[in-house]
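Write out the 3D structure for:
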Amino acid sequence: MPEPHRPRRPALLGKAALETFGDAADPATLAEAAHASANLLVESGRSRAETDPGLVDRLVRLADEQGIDLVAELWSDRPARTLPGALWRIYALREWVRRAPLQVGLDFGTGSAVAHVPRVVAGAAEPPTPEAMRQLADEILTGVFRGDLAVALERAGAFARVVAAGRAHRADDVEPMDPQEASSLTHSSAGLTRTAEDLEAAGRLWRGGELV
């Protein structure tokens, strides 16, 4: 996984899976599938009557047969401040926590000691621990989350901010000994900060009924 804010994507949709949606080469079809699957997953209030019933059935079947990793690929190219874009970032954070728990724990611990995230971001939720972040993401991505999605997105953003602060602090520490590593840490810290900003903005949009 090259960078924490954008981990390795799941395997690309195979030809058979893409054919589930009809014209696999049609970006509009894939975009529709991305938004429809995201809305269905979080029960956003869009009724099934407002969505192509055939598409709904195909999305549900695909998720059941292939798992959320495959569905997440549909979200990966959507704009950050859309519902599928926000879910992709939740998925990316979960994958990083799962794949690099020691690294995440180190960055989170360092960041927790140097960053007072709720004070930095007015109204931000308390950042979850890495394990709590993974559990929150699991609930959202398996469709069992029943809380306020705006708060969940803001908590994920707070988590990303803490880890970003930890990475930036470590970059300062290693700069005299390894400038290249310091540069890599600084770059990934900036990426995590952007992820935090996008998730926080998505939370505000959801609260206003504008995250689609």
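The longest helix spans residues 179-207.
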